[in-house]
Amino acid sequence: EMCDGLLLTGGTDVYPGRFGKEADTGRILEPDLKRDSLEFALLTKAFDLGIPVQGVCRGLQLINVYFGGSLIIDIPTDLDTIVKHQLPETYDCPHDVEITPGSLLHEVSGLLTGTTNSNHHQGIDVLGSGLEAMAKTRDGLIESIGFNDREGKSYLMAVQWHPERLDYNNPLSGPIVKRFVKEAGIYASNRRHENK
Predict the structure, then answer these.
(1) Are 159 and 108 in contact (CB under 8 A)?
(2) Which residues belong to the active site?
(3) How do strand 71-72 and strand 123-124 relate by DSSP bridges?
(4) 90 pLDDT more than 80
């Protein structure tokens, strides 16, 4: 109740039992069941209260699973693609994304294409209910999501890349951070006004 925004960060893989792929646990990075449960509870509370939500990397994946979507367990194994989403020798793997015209990400960044710094071996398989793909790579993998109908809902943006590691002046970094902070400020102001 005291938070003005919820940021879900990168980290280990979401437990595949949450999206019906329990048999694939051998190809994931040690899931943290307590973290999964905590973040699901935090999302429920945030959406109940109207708190703005920003997801980064694992955060995007968790949000998708929260809304009933599923994940590709291992992109190099399960997706026939020439796009590299992770490189062993570096923490950043640059690749281009195409941004959906009219989406929140388009509104925030002002871009229809851009270069991101992904580092992930999993990605969205089936998109969760009520969500839209706001950016994709040329292999069709979803790299950003938000609500497909924003009316009356919390602010929600999630990206598969790491804006916190891009230059602040990058249109796929700074504007995303600024917008989340702005939405948190609006939420805080409204909450203070309601409590008077």
Answers:
(1) no
(2) 57, 162, 164
(3) antiparallel
(4) no
Nearest by Cα to 13 from 140, 120, 135, 168? 120
Phi (first) and psi of residue 18, to 5 degrees:
-75, -15
Whether the Cβ atoms of residue 141 and residue 133 lie closer than 8 Å to each other: no
Cα angle: 63, vertex 64, 68; to 5 degrees: 115
Residue appearing with tokens 């509370």: 45
Query: In this structure, how many other beta carbons lie within 10 angstroms of the beta carbon of residue 25?
Result: 14
Q: What is the pLDDT of residues 156-188, one digit of tens each?
A: 999 998 888 788 899 999 999 999 999 999 999
- Residue linked to tokens 């694992």: 58
Spatial separation of the C-alpha atoms in residues 128 and 124, rounded to whole Å: 9
* DSSP 8-state assignment for residue 148: S
The SS3 call for residue 118 is: strand
> Pairing relation of β-strands 123-124 and 131-136?
unpaired
Taking the CA atoms of residue 113, residue 144, residue 94 and residue 97 in that order, the dihedral angle to the nearest 10 degrees is -30
Q: What angle do CA 25, 30, 32 make, to 5 degrees?
A: 105
Alpha-carbon separation of residue 165 from 106, 114, 146, 148 (angstroms): 20, 15, 21, 27
Total-model pTM:
0.91
